[in-house]
Specification:
13% helix, 3 domains, Neuraminidase, 8-stranded mixed sheet
Amino acid sequence: MLHRLRKEVATILFFALKYFVPFGPFIVSLFMVSAHRAQSPLVLRQSSERVFREAGFVRSAVASRDGHFLYVLIAGRGSVTVYEEGRDFSRDIPTLSLSPDALAVDARGRIYLADTEADQIAILDPFGQRLRTFRVPRPLSLAVLSDGRIVVASPTEGALLHLYDPAGRRFRSFGALKLFDETNPVQNRFLDRGRVLVDAADNIYYVFEFAPHPTVQKFSKEGELLSEFVIEGQAVDLQVQMARRFLAAKDPRQVGGVVTIASATLDPVTGHLWIGVNGSSRSGIVYEYSPEGEKLREYAFVLRPTLAVLVGMEEIVVRSPWIYVFTPAKAYRFHVGRGSIGDFRVLGEGDRCPMAQEWPSCETNCGTPTSEDDKDCKAALQRHVAPTMRVIQNYCTITTTSCYASVTTCDPADGNQVFHAIELDCNSNGAIPARGAERTAFSEALVEDADSLDSKTPNASSFTLSVL
């Protein structure tokens, strides 16, 4: 009753401040923190089911509207891989020379691809035939409304989101940029980056991915702001603390940030919003929210038989009753309602850190006359990792325009593992260098999981399975 009353008061205050009080949205966001801070239960799900065995580093993944298919963009594959429910592999659909960063699928099975650095969106039919291509400035994420209009996330020209008709004509922009950096507009746009999602009722969700205080904004299909809520929890707190340390210490000219929200998806069955967060071996890494923004549950994921805890991810897809968790080299499936265990205490305690790993450089040459413009993601992370922490895993992706690095550390005192990721852009002056080939590298401790008990070959991954 108290939580419901808080929500009703928050809704009334939201619209009162939105329309009648200067700086109303900022005040509303502060109020919503207390309105939605109610404790949510932590659920530990365990499974030994590894799926989609040929999946590599996943850039984007979505479920079809009917839930029968999963569409996955795997880095370097040059195609969209389609998995049918109950099968480990279905088919590849070529992307026809695109190097897309995000995808969406409409009710007719048409595939929409966003290529950020090429400033381009392509629409393919269900068989991969190119239907249309049109230019869009820096499309980071996209979703499709039931009438065929395309919502593109791109913090440009003063707005977070842009509506296009099926022919590629833009007719509306909405969602005001938040002010995170007053001195560097390019850096501010970077911190405003996020993911767009659309539910069955054509409500539009925008999830901030690099914000130092991440929120979710909900819009109508015409772009009217309906509500906003803060994403909170132990895992988010870890990332926010790291993000604020990085932002406080970085060179003012530098463009980049710590990943505070790793993934987001909508369950087409329930309409619930699921948020994926890089966390620790003592926290949930997936949060479930109602359409009204009420946090329902946190989830942690444990692999049998080793009781290894997932601490980081690249993507999640939820289609009740299944949760798919994608890592750079593996994917696992968990049942929403089965495989529960008590709490983290059943996993044991003590110093169980895997062996320390080398942490090579993760630096990209930005192609400018001075080496000071080059970006080193490893160095950016390393400055904020305590020297007592043991580095047990690291991952690096480099292009000519950016670097992305993740690291998993382990505290020898208690075995707790923590995952962080960062991205730095060459786009310090607003220019986009020519696109180059992507290179990836990884290093991790060898940890036996449920499907590698008969193999001693290290697995390529940007997350760590921790044995506590």
